[in-house]
Input
Amino acid sequence: MMKIDKAPVPLIVPNPDDPRLTQSVTGTDQTGAKVEIKVPMERPLTLYLNAQEIVTMMTIGDYPEYLALGYLLNQNMLKYNDAVTEVEYHDDLQVVVVRTEHHTNFEAKLKKRTQTSGCAQGTAFGDLLEAVESVALPKAELRTSWLYQMTQTINTMPSLYLEAGAIHGCVLCREGEPLCYTEDVGRHNAVDKIAGWMYRHGVDAGDKILYTTGRLTSEMVIKTVRMGIPILVSRSGFTAWGVDLARQVGLTLVGRARGKRFMALAGEERIVYDQNLDYVEEESAKHKRKGEAGDD
Output
């Protein structure tokens, strides 16, 4: 197992002022006027596990070590009790190498990938379905007061999305408090960074909630279960397979969480309705995301 830091676990939040993550571009708007806006960067990152090239991901470029570890964990290519000896990132080569004590060979597995509905290189291996069937998620509860506190905090926190748009976010929370907030061009990258962060710092998953801005797809359900998190929340909608998988494995699945509204389609028994809705504000137009009207 990777050596766990004894120092306090670093809390991760977006840094929209980081010049490495966005680029200013000029163009014209619908009136013909010149405009200048910021757009997220998109860089290739090639991941090696020991001497074997695994995948090239398109990413905004922050937290490559967390992304590499999380990707391997969520693809079942790295086990939580595996001994990781080093994570080596080369910025000039845009390469990250994860080294383990034991020999690894995933040549056959790399030929057996299933393309998922995730954007920008979102893939999951077919045998991941078998890997999650044996997972027993911990008992937990989701208080609606936590849910509303969490969504309000996330929506008003400075982020790359509010600065530049065209990006997904995932947030690991305990009760209503965000602990790790990551963003990337693909939601799978954002959640993989959280998985890597949890693994690197020995963070327990049993009392956590995972929030995503993206759809609740089969890929997101599988990743959440792989991480051992019992509750998955999104401001977006569901896919049928995502709902079916969540029900099979006992994951609490909450979508369309905006303002006062939300909808639970799996694991409803964990929800404790303790919040008076008279004291919950509706979401402001500033925080609505493109394409969400179709989820209503």
About this structure: The CA atoms of residues 231 and 252 lie 5 Å apart. DSSP finds eight helices and 16 strands in the chain.
